Amino acid sequence: MNPEHHALFEEARRSLPSGFKVELSGDTIVVTVSPSGIHQRNLLAVRRQFDAHAPVELLPSENTDLVSPNVGKSRNPDLTYLPAEALATSDNQVPSELAAVAVELVSPSNPENDWVGKVRDYPLMGIPLYLLVDARQRTVTLFSRPDGTKYHRREDIDFGERLHLPEPFDFELVTDDLLPY
């Protein structure tokens, strides 16, 4: 990552009041506001299912910066699962390739960030699974099988259907309790 870009990114992060998230995608700094109640409720419904099936060596983390300096990316998923030792730090930055999954709930104010930017960035960052919950469209999408440039598999379901999450989680995600916007 260009040191000048990293310095600008860190300055932007420090200058914002609480309740904002900052991400870096190449030369673009993405700032988002705190999520709504529906967002938080849907995230909890998804997280409870992941928590029940996650291997013991993976811990959940919300709002941890996943960084990949070699491709100039820093992303902050709503939920990720990381090896316990990766979270034994006072820093909020973890190498992205340690993440087992990135879970995002689409922001109604900036859906392109989740549907375009992160679909592009997460496979570059070495994240094997990207689960995208879109309460606007009442859909859940799983991207998988990255090759370092893109995801080669995409599965879409509607709220109320089930979606199989592969290893290391290996469970059927139930979406009956997800709320639309």
N/C terminus separation: 37 Å
Say what oligomer this is: single chain
Q: Would you tell me the structural class of the helices and strands?
A: alpha+beta
Q: Can you name the CATH architecture?
A: Alpha-Beta Complex
CATH topology: tt1808, chain A
CATH class: Alpha Beta
Mean pLDDT: 90
Total beta strand runs: 13
Tell me the helix content. 10-25%
The tally of domains stands at 1
Structural overview:
The protein has 181 residues and is of the alpha+beta class. It has one domain: tt1808, chain A (Alpha-Beta Complex). Helix content is 24%, strand content 36%. The strands form three sheets. A six-stranded mixed β-sheet has the order 3-6-8-9-10-11, with helices on both faces. A five-stranded mixed β-sheet has the order 2-1-5-4-7, sandwiched between helices. A two-stranded antiparallel sheet has the order 12-13. Strand 4 and strand 5 form a beta hairpin. The chain is globular and about 45 Å long. The mean pLDDT is 90.
Question: Would you spell out the secondary-structure blueprint of this structure?
Answer:
Layout (H helix, E strand, L loop, with lengths): L2 H13 L4 E6 L2 E6 L3 H17 L4 E4 L3 E4 L4 E3 L3 E5 L9 E3 L6 E4 L5 H14 L4 E6 L4 E8 L4 E8 L3 E4 L5 E4 L7
Parallel strand pairs: 4-7, 8-9
Antiparallel strand pairs: 1-2, 1-5, 3-6, 4-5, 6-8, 9-10, 10-11, 12-13
